[in-house]
Write a structure and sequence with these properties.
With 393 residues, the chain is α/β, with parallel strands linked by helices. The chain has 14 helices and eight strands. The chain folds into three domains: 90 residues, Peroxisomal Thiolase, Chain A, domain 1 (3-Layer(aba) Sandwich), CATH 3.40.47; 31 residues, no CATH class; 229 residues, Thiolase/Chalcone synthase (Peroxisomal Thiolase, Chain A, domain 1, 3-Layer(aba) Sandwich). The protein has a four-stranded mixed beta sheet, sandwiched between helices. It has a four-stranded mixed beta sheet with strand order 5-8-7-6. Strand 7 and strand 8 form a beta hairpin. Helix 3 crosses helix 14. The chain is globular.
Length: 393
C-alpha cells in the first residue's frame, strides 16, 4: 500500500503536500497493522500532517473509501483526498487456539524466568493446531464458493458460460497490457510490472478440463479457472474538487456522481453475493437512468457465475417484480461493454484493493473515450454490495 501511495504521490506531484484525508483498508491484516492507513501515509511522501483512517467493508472496502472521501469533498469538509485498499493473501495471519494463546499470554506476563516458563508445562500438542484463514460466512458456515454454487443452480448458470466469461477476462486483460492501457495505472513493485495471474496461454478447452472445487459432484460448476483467485495487491484513487484540480493543473478523468450500498438476507432467501443487483436497481432509480444508459460496465468477477447470475437477475421479470419492486425487467446489457480491459478472474482479487482498481479503470475508460457514463458494481462478503456511477463530460 505504501508503494502504491508513493506512486500516486509521484504521478500527481504531491510530495510533501498536505491533503484533506486518506481512507484505506484491508480485509485480512495482522494485529500489528492496526493503524495501517496512517503508517502507509507516513511512508508515502505526503506531508506527515496528512491524516488517515482505516476502513473495512469486505470486498467493497475501497469503493466505500471513495464514497467517504467524495462525501467529505461534497460537504466542503476537505478539498482532496485519497481512497484505497490493500490485501496480501500470501501473508495472511495464522491464528492459534485460545488455549495456546492463554499460555503464551501467561508466559508474557511472568515477572521471573520461572513464571515465564511455568505456563508452558500445560502445553498439549493439539494446542498447536493452527486455525487457517478461510472465506467462510460465520452465520452459514459456507465458503463463498459454496454459497455461489447455490446461487448458480438457482439461476441455472451453465458451466460453459462461466468458462467463456473466464476466458474473455484473461484475453481482454492480456490485450489491455499489450496495448499499454495499464502502463500509467500500474505501479511496479519489487520488479513486478504485470499481474502474474493473467493466463495468456489459456483456452476454453483448458478451462473446460478443470474439475469443480466447491461442489465436487456432477452438478458442480465452479472451478479454479472460473473463480477469482486470492491475490496480493493494492490500489488507490485521488479524488478532489474541481477547484483543487484546477489549481494543481490536473485533468479531471471522471466525476463520481452516484453511489449505493445494499445488503441481502443471505441466511434465508437471497444469494450471498447478489446484493449489487439490489444496489444498482436503487441507484438507477435515484439517478433516473436505465441499465442500458452506460458506455462501460465494471462488474467485479468474484466468480464468473456471480457476474452471470447478476445479469440474469436484471433480465428476469419475476426477480425484478418480486425482489426489486419493478414493473418490468431492467433488461440486458451489451456484453461488449462489460469489463473491457479484463476482470478480477484474470487480474486477481486482493479483497480491499479491487474497488479502487475498478474505479480507476472506469475513470480512464471514460477519459480515453472523451466522455460517457460508467457503472461499477462490487459484491462483498456478508451479503453486501457497493455500486457507483462515474461520468465524464
Amino acid at each position: 500500500m505504501t508503494a502504491t501511495l508513493n506512486g500516486l504521490v509521484q504521478k500527481y506531484d504531491l510530495k510533501g503536500q498536505t491533503i484533506g484525508d486518506v481512507v484505506l483498508g484491508a480485509v485480512i491484516k495482522h494485529s500489528k497493522d492496526w493503524n495501517l492507513a496512517r503508517e502507509c501515509v507516513i511512508g508515502s511522501g505526503l506531508s506527515l500532517r496528512t491524516p488517515a483512517v482505516d476502513m473495512q467493508r469486505a470486498c467493497g472496502t475501497s469503493i466505500e473509501a471513495c464514497i467517504n472521501i467524495a462525501n467529505k469533498i461534497a460537504l466542503g469538509q476537505i478539498e482532496a483526498g485519497i481512497a484505497g485498499g490493500v490485501d496480501s493473501i500470501s501473508d495472511a495471519p495464522i491464528v492459534y487456539s485460545d488455549a495456546f494463546r492463554k499460555i503464551a499470554m501467561a508466559s508474557y506476563r511472568g515477572r521471573s524466568f520461572f513464571r515465564k516458563l511455568a505456563p508452558w508445562f500445560r502445553l498439549k500438542p493439539n494446542y498447536l493446531a493452527p486455525q487457517y484463514p478461510a472465506v467462510t460466512e460465520p452465520r452459514t458456515k459456507l465458503s463463498m464458493g459454496e454459497s455461489m454454487e447455490i446461487t448458480a443452480k438457482e439461476f441455472d448458470v451453465a458451466r460453459e458460460h462461466q468458462d467463456q466469461l473466464a476466458l474473455a477476462s484473461h484475453l481482454k486483460a492480456a490485450a489491455a497490457y499489450d496495448e499499454g492501457f495499464y502502463e500509467d495505472l500500474v505501479i511496479p513493485y519489487r520488479d513486478v510490472e504485470e499481474d502474474n495471474n493473467i493466463r495468456r496461454d489459456t483456452s476454453f478447452e483448458k478451462l473446460k478440463s478443470l474439475k469443480p472445487v466447491f461442489d465436487r459432484s456432477e452438478a458442480g460448476t465452479l472451478t479454479a479457472g472460473n473463480s477469482t483467485p486470492l491475490t496480493d495487491g493494492a490500489a488507490a484513487v485521488l479524488l478532489a474538487s474541481e477547484e483543487w484540480a484546477e489549481r494543481k493543473n490536473l485533468p479531471v478523468s471522471a466525476y463520481l456522481t452516484y453511489c449505493k450500498v445494499a445488503a441481502v438476507n443471505f441466511i434465508a432467501g437471497d444469494g450471498l453475493l447478489m446484493a449489487p443487483v439490489y444496489a444498482v436497481s436503487d441507484m438507477l432509480r435515484q439517478a433516473d437512468l436505465a441499465l442500458q444508459d452506460f458506455d462501460f460496465y465494471e462488474i467485479h468477477e468474484a466468480f464468473a457465475a456471480q457476474t452471470i447470475a447478476t445479469l440474469k437477475a436484471w433480465q428476469s421479470e419475476q426477480f425484478c417484480r418480486e425482489r426489486l419492486g419493478r414493473n418490468r425487467p431492467l433488461g440486458p446489457i451489451e456484453l461488449a461493454k462489460l469489463n473491457v480491459k479484463g476482470g478480477s478472474i484474470a487480474i486477481g482479487h486482493p479483497f480491499a484493493a479491487t474497488g479502487a482498481r475498478v474505479i480507476a479503470n472506469m475513470a480512464k475508460l471514460l477519459q480515453t473515450k472523451g466522455g460517457g457514463r460508467g457503472l461499477v458494481s462490487v459484491c462483498t462478503a456478508g451479503g453486501m454490495g457497493v455500486t457507483a456511477i462515474l461520468e465524464a463530460p
